[in-house]
Each structure stands twice: as C-alpha cells, then as structure tokens.
Amino acid sequence: MAGKFISFEGPDGAGKTSVLKKIGTKLEKQLGSQLILTREPGGNPISESIRRIILDRANTKMDARTEALLYAAARRQHLVEQIIPALEDDKVVLSDRYVDSSIAYQGAGREIGTKAVWQMNQFATAGLEPDLTIYLDIEPEEGIKRIKQHRQNEINRLDVEQLAFHKRVRAAYLELFNQYPDRIKLIDASQPFEKVVLAVQKAITQKYPDLF
Question: What tens digit of pLDDT does each residue of 6-32 get?
C-alpha cells in the first residue's frame, strides 16, 4: 500500500482530537481529497454504532473483555471500509486513535493484560500498523482537569474513571513509546496549543518531508 497512515494517541484531556483537526486543516490545503480524517471507534455506520455502545455511560455492567472485543470489532470494520482502501489509493490517513489505545486503556487501564489485548488486535488488524504515531503526553491530573473544564457535554464512560485508571493508561503509553521509538513520537501536550501543533507538524515533516 502506497499511502501514509498516521495515528494520534494520548490520554484523556491531552487535546489529541483538537490537534488532529488543526493538522488536518493545514494538510487539506495541500492534499485535498487525498487526505482522510477518521476516528476510532467509528469512521463508518457499523463502527459508529459500536462506539455508542462502548461509550454510553449507562452501560456500567460492561465487562472489560467485552469492551476490548468491541473496540477490536469496530477497528476491523474501520480498516476494511476506510483505512485499507485509502492506503491502497495512495491517500494520507490521520486516525484519532488506533491499537495503542486499546493496549493502554483496556490492557493496562482495565488490567486485563497488554499482551492479551495486543494479540486480540493482531487478529483484528492482520498486523497493520501506522507508519507514524503522534503521542500527546500529559499528566493524568492535568488531563482530568481539562476534561472537567472543557468537555462537560461530551464526558463518556471512560472519562469518569478514577485517577488510578488514568495513571495506568499513561504508564502504558509511555511503555509503548519506549518499545517503539521509531514509530511513536512523544509530544509534550502541556504546552500551549499552538506550540503543540507546531511540534506535531515538525514530527510529521521529519517522517514525511513532502508534507506541509
């Protein structure tokens, strides 16, 4: 596949979605219809339906493994409908979350095992990984503070977890960064928004000098 696959990752409150949209706006001027912005879980009707089930705050009885399996199922549908066709068509795909999120949130956050979640997603993705992952890092306390200040209308089932959960998530992300430094680029998300965007743009340009 000739396209470029860039995932955006980060703990809740890191500003990941806002940064992705800003980068997307900059790239759209250059790429036009060759740029694909998408998200997980979601991106198509089936995956979006699964997203609503996963994030519904009413689903308090959802088992941790059920949650992980639902994410993997949504991811598989996302791949076959959006990501793989786009990459085969030489497009640039920016995805708001991918497998690293499941490893961090379900594997570590839910404590069902990062290896088990990784293996589950190997089946779902047939081993397809991003070419580049932008990881926006932030202390859990600051991330939770941001959520409470700016996302009251969008708080979901994962956002309301205890601080210990979010600390496990961040620790897992940092471990992934240490394991895959060539793929994952860490950006300090505690900086002012525009500085974060510039740092992300620089990281992408280092990988793909033809972009921007």
Answer: 999 999 999 999 999 999 999 999 999
Distance (Å, rounded) from C-alpha 201 to C-alpha 77? 29
How many independent structural domains does the chain possess?
Answer: 1
Task: Say whether pTM exceeds 0.90.
Answer: yes
Domain assignment of residue 91, yes or no: yes
Record the tokens describing residue 70, joined without a space: 């639902």
Give per-residue pLDDT as tens, 72-88: 999 999 999 999 999 99
For residue 44, give the CATH number of its domain: 3.40.50.300
The answer to whether residues 210 and 90 touch, using CB atoms and an 8 Å cutoff, is no
H helices of 45-113, in order, are: 45-55, 64-78, 84-88, 99-102
| Torsions phi, psi for 210 (to 5 deg) | -80, -10
Report d(CA 120, CA 68) in Å as an integer: 8
Domain that holds residue 188: 4-207
Residue 168 lies in a domain: yes
212 within some domain? no
